[in-house]
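Subject: for your reference before the review

Hello V.,

The reviewers asked for a structural picture of the protein, and I figured it would be easier to keep everything in one thread rather than splitting it across files. Below is the amino acid sequence we used in the manuscript, unchanged from the supplementary table.
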Amino acid sequence: MCSVSVIIPTHNRAHLVAEAIDSVLSQTFTDFELIVVDDGSIDNTEEVVRSFIDRRLKYLKQTNKGVSAARNTGIETAKGEFIAFLDDDDLFLPAKLSLQLARAADDPTAGLVYGKYLSAIRSEGSMKAAGVCHPKLELRDLLLGPAFHWSTVLIRRTLLEQVGGFEENLGGEDWELALRLALAGCQMICVSEPVSIVRRQSISNTRDLQYYSQS
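And here is what came back from the structure prediction:
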C-alpha cells in the first residue's frame, strides 16, 4: 500500500495531460501511485500516457461516462491511505503532497486538506494567487458556494468510500460531494500557500468564478 493515490481523469487532452503527469511524477514526496483514467478519448491520449516509464503510473481506459465517473473509477482502484485529484489541464506544484501530508499529520482529526492555488491563463502565461484558507471550514461556509478547488484536495480514502464518491448524474458534483462530506462530519483544513496551478484557456473563461478567490 502507498501513502497517496493521485487520480487524473482525462478526455481528449493528449496535448495537456503529459504536463499534468509530469507535475505529479516530479513531487518531492515520492510514496504515491498515479492513476490516469482515460474517459473514452479518441485522440492519442493512450500513447502519450504510456510513453511515461514509471512503475507508479497506472493507465485505465473506459467508455466515455464523464469526469465524475472517471474519478470514481480511480477511487475504486486506489490503494493509498489518501487520495488527491488533479484535472488533466492543471498542475501540482512540486511540494504539494509533502505540504498537505505534513498538515494532515499535524491534525490527525482532519479528513480533507485543501490549499490555495495559482490561477493561470494559458494564452497569456500569467498567474495570480487564488483561494481562501478558512480558519475552520464548516457546512455554513460551503452552503455559500464551493470553497476550494478539487485540484488542491488531499482526502482520506475511507471518507470517500463512506459517502459514496462523486455523483455521476448531477451538475456541480464537486460542490455536492463537499456538502456530503461536511454532513458526514469530515473536518476540512487548509494549507495556506498555493499547492496547485489551475489553468484557464482564456481570460473569458469563468472557471475561477465558482470558487472563493483573492488576488
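For the response letter, the relevant points are probably these. The helical segments are 14-25, 45-50, 67-77, 96-106, 139-142, 157-163, 173-183. The CA atoms of residues 109 and 187 lie 7 Å apart.

Happy to draft the paragraph if you're swamped.

O.
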